[in-house]
Amino acid sequence: MPELPEVETLRLQLNPILKGQVISKLEILNKKTFHGDPKLIINRKITGISRFAKVLVFETKDVAIAIHLKMSGRLIYRGKKQPKNLKIDDIELKKLPNSHTRVTFHFKSGDILYFTDQRKFGWIKLLDRVKREALKEKLGIEPFSKNFNVENLYKITSKINRPIKVVLMDQSLISGIGNIYANDGLFCAKIHPKTKAKDLDKKQIQKLHECLLMVLKNGIKYKGASENLFRDAFGQKGELQNYFYVYAREGKPCKVCRTPIVKFRLGGRGTFFCPKCQKSQ
Ligand SMILES: [Zn+2]
Questions:
Q1: Contact 152, 141 (CB under 8 A)
Q2: What is the full DSSP assignment across 186-232?
């Protein structure tokens, strides 16, 4: 599932291309993907693309187009500004639209943006200002906002008796961190994923805060993780999967001490850690 760095990758790529462009036509191929009256955005100019947590928001004068990729959503741009010599590994993306295309945005310039979604959990919602704020309020602290500081993180963790990894992935507490970045952030901070959040002292939370920002920034630097279905706005793979610390590395040697990485299930999710670097408390 795309997490904060994957969605931020799309924002960084699409914002310079689509900002100022006018939507001329919308094709809704799967009704359940699109919520709202499409007429509200026809002939509207995109004034910018923002992001909160894993939600990408195309701003227009009075309606925001909020997009959530969920499990398998992809946003693929085709037009004059796509890079030359595209590296497309997924044959489905060589021909667009394809059988997984759910919504197509056409722009006056002739540019096209395809929303494809194999598993159909993703959505596009048209939101007025009130609904936009309501959606934002449901989500926890955004890691790249100034509210995400050591004090606030400690305020959250010190009251919770659940494992720290489950807490990091709870979108109502902190938003945007999923399984990859929770696993690798905890490894960097040398914290066992099962440690009860309230048992972590301020010093450990300080380290964890630093590590979470580091792994998220690293994800953006490598244009996201494409070990699965995520592809960037041009349909190309991100590269973070080549640099995971512990995530998806079961049985492989720890990058610090060579001890084999262990996998177990926690809160229903595959959890990876180094038994030597991340001791239980
Ligand atoms: Zn280790």
A1: yes
A2: HHHTT--TTSBGGG--HHHHHHHHHHHHHHHHHHHHTT---SSS---
Q: Is the pTM of this model over 0.70?
A: yes
Encode pLDDT of 47-85 as tens digits. Answer: 999 999 999 999 999 899 999 999 999 999 999 999 999
Q: Which segments of the chain does DSSP mark as H helices, in order?
A: 4-18, 129-138, 150-157, 164-168, 179-188, 202-221
What's the 182 CA to ligand 1 centre distance in angstroms? 17
Query: What is the residue whose two structure tokens read 């094709």?
Result: 27
Q: How far is the CA of 24 from the centre of ligand 1 (A)?
A: 54
Q: What is the Rg, in whole angstroms, of the alpha carbon atoms belonging to the chain?
A: 20
d(CA 78, CA 99): 17
Active-site positions read 2-3, 54, 269
Closest CA to 204 of 25, 212, 179, 29: 212
260 CA distance to ligand 1 middle (Å): 8
- Mean of pLDDT values over 148-161: 98
* Dist CA 18 CA 20 (whole Å): 6
Q: What was the pLDDT predicted at 280? A: 80
Which domains does the chain possess?
Answer: 4-138 (3.20.190.10), 150-273 (1.10.8.50)
Q: Closest Cα partner for 165 from 265, 245, 275?
A: 265
Which helix (H) or strand (E) segment is 26 a member of?
strand 23-28
What's the length of the chain?
281
pLDDT tens digit sequence for 95-131: 999 999 999 999 999 999 999 999 999 999 999 989 9
